[in-house]
Amino acid sequence: MRKALHYGKLEIVPEKPCDAYVLDDDMAVFSERGAANFLGVDHMHLVRMRQRGIPKILTQFMPPDFKIETIQAEVTATNSPYKDRIIVAYPVPTVENIMFAYVMAFGNQVLRKNQRHIGEYNVIMMTTLSSAALEATIKESCQLPVNIQATTRQHYQDIVTLMQESGLQCSVSKDIALKTDITNFLQCPVSTLNTYLNRHLHDIKPIKLDRDTIRSLGSKASRLYGYTVQDVGTITLEMNSLVGITLKEKLFGQTTSLAPITAPGATNFAEVFTKLFADSTLHTNYKMGDIIIDYYVPEFNLVLYCTDCNMQRPVIPYTKLQQLFPTQHIVQFQQHNDITQVFNAILKTQVNPELSTVIPEPQAIYYGTAEIVPGLICDCYVLDNGRAVLSERGAADLLGMELSPFQSMTLNSLPYELKSFLDKDFSMETNLANVTAKNSPYVGRKIRVYNALDIIKLMRAYAVALTRNALKETQMHIGYKSIINIRFLTHADIEIIIREACGLPVSIAKTIEKTRPNIVTLMQNLGLNCIENSTMVLKKDIVAFMHVPLSTLNTYLKKRCRDIQPIKLDRTTIKKLGSKAVQMNAYTVQDVGTIVLGMKSEVGEQLKTQMFGQAGTIANIETTSEIEWWQKLKASCVDLSLFHHYHIDKSRIEVDFYLHELELILECNGYDGHASYDPIAEKKREQLFKNYRVIRFHHQIDVATLFRAILKVKKGEIIRLYPA
User: Fold this and answer.
1) Helix (H) or strand (E) holding 73
2) pTM over 0.70
């Protein structure tokens, strides 16, 4: 019988610990209850799956003939509470396959209502694990200390914490809420909550409170029930409410539908500022003495100066700008700054007239090389703000793209095929960073770097587009590579956190390499004939393996000539093959894998199924216009006090958004601009706004129009921004 030598408790989700072990053969496993907690399912539900088999609803998203493999192990780890007992252990690949199946089933909308929260939970977990693994790999390559479990927790936002931050009050204790607490939090009638609870009797169990607890609440009821805060999280995610949508937005990331006012990549500030200051005097290329200022707005005493301007002119020191414009507000920024950073800096100057702002240029202070894909070395950096980034070539290599098309995609526009599978306002976050890391070959230079989390989002989009058959033939290899990377970054992260929790030394890069599927072995098992110690393959063997005509293979190779290079064989090798040819070419077995995955063939489909399981997709979570604007405003007012659903003057009047420093009320109105509301009630409501600046805007206006109004609006004034 196997021995469980090492024990650890990992806790990615607060208050949901997972018991894990490393066995005597170095296999990382979960206990049965630990696996259930990790997957977000009831313990007995997992037991039934083990005993009766995978539910039919999940089997279509599993590898062929998948069965839950468990191991009987004797616990010898001295720190385990189950020492000397026999446990049922679940290997990491088994848990990861179940997680992936729930994600795919959720995306294809085939889960029942009482299962959707499991799908949502696993989407969060899978995205969290792959993101954390990539970030930790970059930091490890830069020789920085890495706590993979802490990194993963940072990427996972606990639903309980989010609910408490959003106003959930628990009357009984910090983790038990009454029905009145839930209805107050969700802003819904008790009857609506009761209807939901009646439909979910098997999943959400009320807790009967004792007499002393009921009396301490000041109630005279003979009996009273409460609900765990985790169950409140399930209710919140499942029920259709604005609070629920807000929490989904925070958990799943932005999936907004606001059109960006600039193209991805470098911001067109000239276009943005023209919109922003349309009702003001905007001087561009304003000359003062022997220097030229990018933008000058006299009405706001505002100087906007781009410090790099694509290297077209020398940089003016900030002290000289202060001498030239002693009474002006100066905002310095870089060409590749996020537009929200610039908006935030401009708003700060309006709040504090003495304030000028310099948006600092990122510094790449740590450098390393990460072998995320075996044989593929990616340059990585950690910036002075702690963000993990990839160099331009490293990001392109990780996606499996040529550098030139990658640059064109990120600096101009994303492929049309991907736009349906990305947040609608997604743009690649690129920065020109000063390399100060002494061990980098580019020290002292400015390089373009890419946020690692954006690369994860791009990989996810390519993977989803592939499963929807939305990619062109020339893009399909990127989709397949993305699926491999996401799944096995996820798998590797699970392995690493188990080993780390058990107190064992870990190497992230080595774990990723170990967990990656061996495509060579899979192809050989399917009948691929190789030469030269199984490292190279002839064309005739490729067409025989794939059952395709030679002309079809040649056409594919011509299209991919940049990526797939033939290897010229020497005379000795040709003679060993029994050929009289003067020259002969072969292809590496790794390139054959790319060919098989990229071309349509029966053997290719078999290989894909063995590597990835059944294809599925992950659905985007819908959100509302008000939440979209909350995300936009929050990013642009990061240094100011911005409130959502704010009660003014401690009254019952609630406004959508309130910016404290400017005494500014922002009301995001619906499709009809509140035209269908009671006009008398609306007039009374607006009378309460006389001591504030007020903007009522249609949810589809662009960002620059709203910010122009914010800069213009005066106290006691109401500006209405609605379509004509």
Assistant:
1) strand 71-75
2) no
Cα angle at 533 between 528 and 537, to 5 degrees? 40
The secondary structure of 17-74 as a DSSP string is -EEEEEETTS-EEEEHHHHHHHHT--HHHHHHHHHH-S-HHHHTTSPTT-----EEEE
Strand partners, 481: none
Q: What single-letter DSSP state applies at residue 290?
A: T
**Helix and strand tally (H, E) in the chain?**
30, 26
d(CA 254, CA 249): 6
Question: How many CB atoms neighbour CB 11 within 10 A?
Answer: 15
Q: What is the pLDDT of residue 439?
A: 92
Q: Which two tokens stand for residue 465?
A: 């587009």
Task: Give the integer Cα–Cα distance in Å for 144 and 455.
Answer: 21
- Spatial neighbors of 69 by CB under 8 A, at least 6 apart, are 90, 91, 94
φ, ψ for residue 27, nearest 5 deg: -80, 135
CA distances from 692 to 46, 231, 500, 707, 709 (A): 56, 40, 54, 17, 14
Inform me whether the pLDDT recorded for 134 exceeds 90: no
Q: How far is CA 19 from the centre of its chain?
A: 27
State the amino acid at position 390 in one-letter form: L
Start-end of H helices in 444-588: 452-467, 476-501, 508-515, 519-525, 539-546, 550-559, 571-576
Closest by Cα among 486, 473, 458, 293 to 372 = 486
Task: Give per-residue pLDDT as tens, 388-406.
Answer: 888 988 888 888 788 888 8
Q: Are 599 and 552 in contact (CB under 8 A)?
A: yes
- Residue 238 and residue 551: Cα distance in Å, rounded? 54
Closest alpha carbon to 431 in 446, 442, 445: 446
Average pLDDT over residues 207-224: 89
Confidence of residue 385 (pLDDT cuts 50, 70, 90): confident
* Single-letter amino acid code for the residue at 528: L
Structure tokens at 254: 């932005």
Q: Distance between CA atoms of 394 and 371, rounded to whole angstroms?
A: 10
